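Recap from last week: sequence in, structure out.
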Amino acid sequence: MSMNACSVELLGLIVEQVSSNTGLRSLRAVDKTFCALATPRAFRRACVTNCLPSALGLKALMECDKLAKTVETIIFRWSDAAAGVEDTQAKRATYIALVTVFAQLHKFPALIDVELKFFPGARPPPLVADEHGHIDFIRNPSEAGLMQSTIVQSLLRNADPPRLRSLSMANLIAFPFGYYRSPEFVAILSSLEHLHITLHGLNSLGGPGGEEMWDWMWQEMIPIHFLRPPQPQLISLSLTSDQPVGRSPRLDLSGIFFPALRHLELGGIMFDHHCRIEDFVVRHGETLASLALDSCPMHVTTLGEDPPRPWRAVCDRFAEALSALVDVQFHLRTGWGLDDRSRSGEVRLTYETFETAYGIVRGESCRALEAVDRPALDRFIATVKERRQKQATTPRPPVPQPETALIALDASERVTESFVVPIHWV
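Predicted C-alpha cells:
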C-alpha cells in the first residue's frame, strides 16, 4: 500500500514509534504530512548547557515562532567543559543568551516543564559569604553560584510567568537568595504538579557567614518559601540534601499539607523523636501512593541505647496511617554527591548520632538496632505489597484514546543542520 493512501492516524502511529530525534528530523523531510506529525515530537524537549554554541542554539529556536510553540520541556545542564573557558567575551555572550531565553519563556507557549541541573559534583567551588551574608562575585568568583543565580533570576523576570506543571531545581547551592521570597517565585510555584529539589551540603558555602546561610536556607527558605506557598494541585514532591538536615539545621514542616500529593521522596532528611518529618508524611496518608526515603537516618544520642523513637514504631505507624500507599522504597547511599547516588542493595532504615554529617560509613555500627526493627519493617513492606497486588487485580475503566492531531506546519519550517548541531536534543 502506498504511503499516500495511509490515513493520518496510521502515519501518526508510525511517528510515535520513532524515539530518536535524528529519526524524527529525518521523517520531517519526507513530506508535509510527516513534517507536521514529527515536528512536535522532534522539538518537544530542548536541552541547553552553559556552553556558548548551545546557548545560542536555544536562543535561535526561541526566535523561530513555529518551532518554539512545540517546545514543552526546557532542560539546563551544567557542563564542566564550559567552566574551564577563559575567554571572557564568550562567557559574557553565553550569559546574555541564557538570560535572553529564560527571561522570555512566554515565547514557548506550550512550555510546561523546566529542569535546571546545576553543578553536579560532590564539592562545588564554594560560594563565599561574608559575616553579613553578602556575596562578592568579583573578589570571590564562583562560576557555579553565578550561573545558578543568573538562570533562576532570569526565570523570575518573566513579565508573564509560564504556567509550569513541573519544576526541577537540582544541585542547588544552598544559599538563601532574596529572590526566593519574591512574588514571582510564588507565582512560578503556584501552578506546579511536580516539584523536585536537591541541594548541596554545607561545603558549597564558604566564608564567615557560610554556616549561618546554610541554616537560614533550611530553616526558613525551604519550608516557608519553597513549600508553603499554595500548591493545591501538587502531585509529587522530591526533596534531597547531600548533607543531613532536619535536626541541625532544623527542618520544620508543621502545617504544610498538599491535598493532592501522591508521590513523596525525601533524601538526607533526618527523623527524630520530635516526629516533625514523620508527621508530615502521615498527614498525606489518604492520598500518598508512593514513598521513597533515601539515606534518611533516625537521630539517636548514642548507639548503645534503645532509641526514644525507633524505626519499628515509625513503620507500624506508617503501615496503619498510609492507607493509599502501594509503593515504598528505602535506600542507603554509600557515596557522596547528588549525582553519585551509589546505593546499598539492602533495604535499610538506619540510625545516626551526628546531627550535621554522616558517619564515615553510613549506617556504621547500627546493625544491632536495625535487627530489632526488621520485623516491623518487613510487615510494613508486606502490607504495601499486598495492597498493590489487590489494586492490580481490580478492573479499571477503559481510558479513551485521543485522536491524532495534525499540526498546521509545513515542510518549509525544516531546520538546517547548522541550526540543529549546537542544540543537545534529549
